[in-house]
Design goal:
The complex is a heterodimer of chains A (223) and B (363). Chain A is mainly α. Helices cover 78% and strands 0% of the residues of chain A. Chain A has eleven helices and no strands. In chain B, the strands form four sheets. Chain B has a six-stranded mixed β-sheet with strand order 7-8-9-3-10-11, with helices on both faces. In chain B, strands 2-1-4-5-6 form a five-stranded antiparallel β-sheet, with helices on one face. In chain B, a hairpin with a 4-residue loop joins strand 12 and strand 13.
């Protein structure tokens, strides 16, 4: 036996975490990316830099600050009495923060490429701003959304440092595939580590392959 | 007669746009002026895309903006059609869905224009199932115009719809715009810096310069105004005359036109007797004589005229504004002016060396 129940549980936690993270980031990231693409505010560069910070920061640094913030003596803990550190919710928050640039940046680029032209055209054809966004901007930005979802999902599945700092690898709650592989290696269970690693490798490859095929099949023509 | 009245005052990054206008809410009103004079800004203000904090706009009896009462309809609540410089078709929808995008968003009782009508006027029936990127520039712009018409607009704003097209494509679309003017009874504001388009299409002209309204009036008035010499363009238009076909002289390849009891000969026209034809005369093609022609001359077109106003252009040239039943400007030398001793009120004879039809101009 190479893959046990504990490993399957970790896979389930990982998939749930990746899905939740992507959903949270799409909800928060769409308006933020839209704002970044169209604002003339001087704060734009500051926000852009903040969004990009997780790319260059060591995951342990980010994980450390999130751990402190979500702990019982952090601002959230003091205000609400909730301790989110070492919980699944805390893990989603941490993952979302860590994967922010991987979702925001493709959306930002997509919105910027579209510009205001199609939006103004839709308004002039009686579409309200929300209607225009849903029926015109979103379909044209489809590639941007696909990139954002895939990158956000894959990046969350692969993260280790932040997850370990904030989640602590508690089986069934915060233990994900990457930390499980680490745990297996630590106790010399190379067979299990191999199986999970191979799974991750094939899974990542198939997801990306699917995206590229979809992009070829349904190209969005922006002329 | 219903009118379009508007006042805007917008401070843009590079210039101050301040305009008050009052034009008939019918026919084609051309907005003319050099680039950067605020032509597009005017359309953006009229549409509601640009909001002027002290703005006012009324079309016939409907007020769309009156900031003094805090009234401002956003663009998506205004019954207007807006055709941008670029077609801006939606790339993810085929031509039919692009055409119907706005149509589906207006209420049933407001739908006065049908898909069949628009397809017919614009000649785009064979394109309906194609994607926008498969169309030529001219076809795309026709679809963009059709899409705007299908919202049954009460006002149509066209921002240099032909600017991005080459001469051939312009020739393809201009007749459609002319049919549009006849087929639909809605006011059209048409921005252009192409003289030929304005001469062919416009009824009224607004001339903008540096964010201000320099002048407005009928095409004839504006293009015969001596104040606007610099803006009349390289052709120096001396007159725009609405004439009717009086007779054909096929043996000479000519057609005789009539306007206000005067007649003019132009190359043979494929039009019926009585049909209207718009012609223009360059001011440099007009020369003046004090007496009617008594000796034989090759000049065919001689109009009786009265001098209205004389304006010096430079050392050598003066513009003489005449009344020939319609206003006509003649550019003559100052030497000739002195020799003929021309004065306002004087009776003269204008020799027209060449009459152009608006269709022949290119930019």
């Amino acid at each position: 036996m190479t893959i046990g129940d504990a490993d399957l549980t970790a896979l389930w936690v990982t998939l749930r975490l990746a899905c939740m993270t992507v959903v949270v980031l799409l909800i928060v990231g769409t308006p933020l990316a839209w704002w970044l693409a169209h604002t003339r505010s001087r704060f734009k560069v500051i926000v852009e830099a903040i969004v990009a910070v997780p790319i260059v920061l060591p995951p342990t640094v980010l994980g450390f600050y999130i751990l402190v913030a979500l702990g019982p003596y952090g601002p959230i803990g003091r205000l609400t009495g909730l301790t989110l550190a070492f919980t699944f919710t805390g893990l989603v928050i941490a993952s979302a923060l860590y994967s922010t640039p991987f979702v925001i940046q493709p959306l930002h680029a997509a919105f910027e490429a579209i510009g205001k032209g199609p939006l103004e055209a839709a308004w002039a054809l009686r579409a309200s701003p929300l209607d225009a966004f849903v029926t015109v901007i979103s379909p044209i930005a489809l590639r941007g959304y696909i990139s954002a979802i895939v990158l956000g999902f894959a990046h969350t599945m692969g993260e280790f440092g932040v997850v370990l700092m904030v989640g602590g690898s508690i089986p069934g709650k915060t233990r994900v595939l990457s930390t499980t592989i680490f745990d297996h290696v630590e106790v010399m269970e190379y067979a299990q580590a191999h199986a999970l690693s191979a799974f991750m490798l094939v899974f990542s490859f198939l997801v990306l392959l699917g995206v590229y095929i979809a992009n070829r099949r349904f190209p969005i023509h922006v002329s | 007669m219903s009118r379009l009245t508007a006042r805007f005052d917008v401070q843009l990054p590079n210039f101050h746009f301040q305009i008050a206008l009052d034009v008939p809410a019918s026919g084609i009103t051309a907005v003319f002026g050099p680039s950067g004079s605020g032509k597009t800004t005017l359309l953006r203000c009229l549409s509601g895309l640009e909001r002027s904090s002290t703005g006012f706009m009324r079309l016939a009896d409907e007020v769309w903006q009156d900031e003094s009462r805090g009234l401002y309809l956003p663009i998506y609540e205004r019954p207007l059609g807006y055709v941008f410089q670029e077609p801006r078709l939606f790339p993810h929808l085929n031509v039919r869905s692009n055409l119907l995008y706005g149509f589906k968003r207006i209420s049933l009782q407001d739908r006065r224009v049908s898909l069949e009508q628009v397809v017919d006027i614009l000649g785009i029936g064979h394109l309906l199932d194609r994607r926008p990127h498969k169309l030529s520039g001219g076809e795309q712009q026709r679809v963009a115009i059709g899409r705007a018409l299908l919202t049954s607009p009460r006002l149509l704003l066209l921002d240099e719809p032909l600017a991005s097209l080459d001469i051939e494509r312009k020739r393809e679309i201009l007749p459609f715009l002319q049919r549009l003017r006849k087929a639909l009874d809605i006011p059209i504001i048409y921005v252009s810096h192409a003289m030929s388009e304005i001469l062919q299409l416009a009824d009224m002209v607004l001339v903008l310069k540096a964010g201000r309204l320099l002048t407005s009036g009928s095409l004839t008035e504006v293009f015969s105004s001596l104040d606007l010499r610099g803006l009349r363009g390289p052709y120096s238009i001396g007159a725009v005359i609405e004439a009717n076909i009086a007779a054909h002289e096929p043996e000479f390849g000519l057609t005789r036109l009539e306007f206000k009891a005067q007649s003019l000969h132009v190359p043979l026209q494929p039009l019926g007797i009585g049909e209207p034809l718009r012609i223009h005369i360059l001011s440099s093609d007009v020369s003046l004589a004090l007496a009617p022609v008594t000796v034989p001359t090759s000049v065919l077109n001689v109009l009786e005229a009265t001098v209205i106003e004389i304006r010096e252009v430079d050392q050598a040239t003066v513009d003489v504004k005449l009344d020939v039943g319609a206003p006509l400007v003649a550019s003559i030398t100052r030497k000739s002016l002195v020799k003929l001793a021309l004065k306002p009120g004087q009776r003269v004879y204008a020799h027209i060396k060449s009459v152009a039809l608006s269709e022949e101009l290119s930019d």
